[in-house]
Amino acid sequence: MRPELAAKYDLRVPRYTSYPTAPHFHPGVTSETYGEWLGGIDPKLELSLYLHIAFCAEMCWFCGCHTKITKRYAPVAAYMDALWREVELVAEALPTRMTARHIHFGGGSPTILTPEDFVKTVDLLKSRFLLKDGAEVAVELDPRTADEAYVKAMAGAGVTRASIGVQDLDPKVQQAINRIQPYEVTERVVNWLGQYGVPEVNIDLIYGLPYQTLDGLLATIDRSVTGFKPRRIALFGYAHVPWMKKHQNLIPEESLPDTNTRWQQYEQGCRLLTETHGYVQIGLDHFAAPDDAMAIALRDKRLHRNFQGYTTDSATTLIGFGASGIGSLPQGYVVNEGEVHAYQRSVAAGRLGTSRGIAISDDDRLRREIIERLMCDLEIDLDVVAGRHGVDGGQFAAELDSLGGLVADGLARVEGHRVFVTDEGRTLVRAVCAAFDRYLKAGEQRHSKAV
Fold it and tell me: Which pLDDT does position 441 carry in this prediction?
């Protein structure tokens, strides 16, 4: 990215893992609303299930997730009692015992669970939902808290993918983000995953961290690829939002890379992964081996995007469990209580844990597909997509006009009702998507930087 453009487009825009995006959800969507929506789902649809484990052993200062810190297991055990009860409540509200094609354990840190509680959770899901043959069961894994017994239990329960948070291997950076994780700690867990037969390993890295240098990031990428041999890699930009996540105030602003350095880290990191290590770049920040299902989905234009980022999961209904769990249903989005005790009280009273959400309109569905296709394919034919929704692509004349600046700078191209994001503009695909976001207010500051 040319330096003058890096400064010009240092924007704050949504990550577009949903549309409308989370800041526009409201408390008018209640647990009663959610129950009605669940009951109205077509029984033939297949589901995706997300379970949010809202605890960690310690706080990583870069973290933007909903989590609580505990050194005792009793709060975790009480939380899991509530989550198991929520699974029962949701299953009872659905029209039938439905099929799940994808299960994802996120957090927080799912590895804070005992092996016994992890297995119990998977067994409960299998009893209340039909697990499709070949279903993916994925777990976000913290190598600092995952021991051999846990990895063995994961494998025995049918886990097919582990996503390992590495972030950066530089000890100075690790100290600055309060995540001390030597290479050998991650290597040991990767070896256990191979030993017990978990077939797919992902690695998560972050650029834009405090005291992180370009050379240090590239060294982390090289060592992670050669040492861990991941099938997929995510290279996320650190989102510094201390007004939302107070613990990020522990990271000094002056220790963060400036805008130009962030751009260099991103672009050279991408180049190293694709040109040197042979990964296929997926959208904005994911990379996959050429024969990986995600790379194949990209090629075939079957890639999707949800709250976990880029995915091959095509389920139109995502059920979220746990505190702050977020779901996407045909009727709209729902979010559970974020505060753990409030969530537990709601479920203990026999209510679904919903605190807010949004019903979506036909226009929302159309714009959601436009944004998803842009985020995934980096191009779109508005006539084709609009036609699927029974409208004319010509209605987006104003949105196309608003892309004029990006077009003039060589970051996007417009041909009639078709939009293309250029190679240089890939880093700003979120800014292109923002042109079609009717909820976004100019200058809004609640989102992370575009890169």
Answer: 73
Q: Where in the chain is the domain with CATH 3.80.30.20?
A: 21-359
> The tokens of 438 are what?
């009717």
Span between the terminal Cα atoms of the chain, in Å = 11
DSSP, residue by residue, 168-228 = ---HHHHHHTT----HHHHHHHHHHHHHHT--EEEEEEEES-TT--HHHHHHHHHHHHHHH
In this structure, is the dihedral angle defined by the CA atoms of residues 16, 20, 24 and 26, taken in order, positive or negative? Answer: negative
Question: Computed from CA positions of residues 378, 273, 241, 63, in that sequence, does the dihedral angle turn out positive or negative?
Answer: positive
Query: In the predicted model, is pLDDT for residue 448 greater than 60?
Result: no
SS3 285: coil
Chain position carrying tokens 């021991």? 147
3-class secondary structure per residue, 23-52: HHCECCCCHHHHHHHHHCCCCCCEEEEEEE
In tens, the pLDDT along 293-333 reads: 999 999 999 999 999 889 999 999 999 999 999 999 999 99
- Please say whether the beta carbons of 409 and 5 come within 8 A: yes
Mean pLDDT for 356-382 is 97
Q: Given a cut of 80, is residue 443 above it in pLDDT?
A: no
Question: Taking the domain 362-434, which CATH number applies?
Answer: 1.10.10.920
Give the mean model confidence (pLDDT) for residues 262-287. 95
The partner residues of 339 in beta bridges, in order of sequence, read: none
Structure tokens at 220: 């982390």
- CA dist list (Å): 429 to 148, 226, 395, 421, 432: 41, 30, 21, 7, 5
Report whether 350 contacts 89 (CB < 8 A). Answer: yes
Residues forming CATH 1.10.10.920 domain(s) in the chain: 362-434
Contact of 437 with 404, CB cutoff 8 Å:
no
Which among 303, 261, 262, 307 is positioned nearest to 280, based on CA atoms? Answer: 303
What is the torsional sign of CA 165, 313, 369, 289?
positive
Chain-centroid distance, C-alpha 418: 28
Q: Which CATH class is domain 21-359?
A: alpha beta
What order of strands is seen across the sheet that includes strand 99-107?
Answer: 280-282, 286-288, 232-237, 200-207, 161-167, 130-141, 99-107, 46-53, 317-321, 326-329, 332-336, 354-359
| pLDDT tens-digit map of 102-158 | 999 999 999 999 999 999 999 999 999 999 999 999 999 999 999 999 999 999 999
